[in-house]
Amino acid sequence: MTSIRIREAAQQAWLEQLVHEFKTICFQYRVQLRLPIFELSAAKQQLGCWISAQRILRISEHLIVSSSWDVVLMVLKHEMAHQLCSEYFRLQHAGHGQEFQKACQLLGVSAPYNRATGDLDEVIAEPSGCKQTAEGRRIIRRINKLLRLAGSENEHEAALAMQRATELLHRHNRAMSALGNPPDCVRLSLRTGKKQIPSWRKAICRILRDYFFVEVIFSSLYDAQRQESYKTIELLGRSENVPVAEHCYYFLQQQLESLWKRNRQRFQGNARTAKNSYYLGLLHGFAQKLAEQAGNIVQEKTPQGNENREGAKTAGELIISKDGQLQGFVGFHFPRLQTRSVQAVRIHQYPYEEAVAAGKDIILHRSLTEKKQGGKDRLISC
After folding, report:
1. What is the pTM for the complete model shown?
2. 11: pLDDT confidence band, cut at 50, 70 and 90?
3. In the structure, what pLDDT confidence band is assigned to residue 170 with cuts at 50, 70 and 90?
4. Domain edge (last residue) among 60, 90, 124
5. Are residues 113 and 138 in the same domain?
6. Strands, DSSP E only, in the chain?
7. Minimum mean pLDDT among 14-23, 152-161, 281-290, 299-308: which range?
8. Checking CA distances to 170, which of 138, 233, 274, 326 falls within 20 to 30 Å?
9. CATH code, domain with 93
10. 115 with 188, same domain?
11. Can you give the residue range of the structural domain that contains 248?
12. Number of domains observed in the structure of the chain
């Protein structure tokens, strides 16, 4: 009896979340759809279904249990596109033709979810980030080789290898930007499992945006098993840039933890504030190193021709801000982005200053924990 009640409570929570997601999607994409009747189905092959006569939108309970919520969201959007066809375009049998594709564009439905499929395996097996061009794959291979060398015990050889990898990535993106070729953009979601994103994690994200040519968006994702929402970090960019940025994210996270464990006994006072100060100092030092290596700080001129220090931007920041294709890709996935002011962070000066010097010694390389579940190498994603 208890297990039945637990299941019923979970089903009710999922239905309430689907209603919330429906309203959020309509708001985000500025689409006015009437709230349908939501139902959970027991189907294992049919992921979702829109029944226009009864205004019922069904989502497979098997899908919710066996897949991550981002897959559930895309299936929900797929069925909302059918609803859009029937209630907005007044088409009762639009199928998956031209009008349906137009509806998918309006709701931000991307492949493979914008086509007819009833096979769960086909949907969740779709590779994300495997759209690299031949040139992109070549760049990834070269960066891989350099990052392996950056793990060398020879300090000079390691530093030189990291510098070459950084320069290679910058040259490639400058060249692609100058050519004006439409980029193959991908989106990757990093799950934090936390309700809040701490200041040090935001600092990592600034490094990714400034020096690894990706847009970084803070979002959230529902966990159907825990029935809670947690923060995510969304990386969007060229298919060759995103896996490098992902590797850097996990590498820096590992380095912060390792260096803090090694040095924490040296700092007195509030352990949490000291730790946060140390983390931020390490990241500031590492960012300074990247700026020096790439030589990519660009000064914006004021109307009088003087350099505006506060308006200084990195080459990475300038390139992605001027990349219309990437900005369109970001807008397709996040049509209503909001910029929030950064709150002041309390810093302990001593651990921070000590860490800045240590951060300049961090060398980005192929760490021992770089391989994710299943042993798949995420730097070479295809």
Report:
1. 0.86
2. very high
3. confident
4. 124
5. no
6. 37-41, 48-51, 56-60, 185-191, 214-223, 228-238, 297-301, 307-314
7. 299-308
8. 233
9. 3.30.2010.10
10. no
11. 134-256+295-341+358-375
12. 2
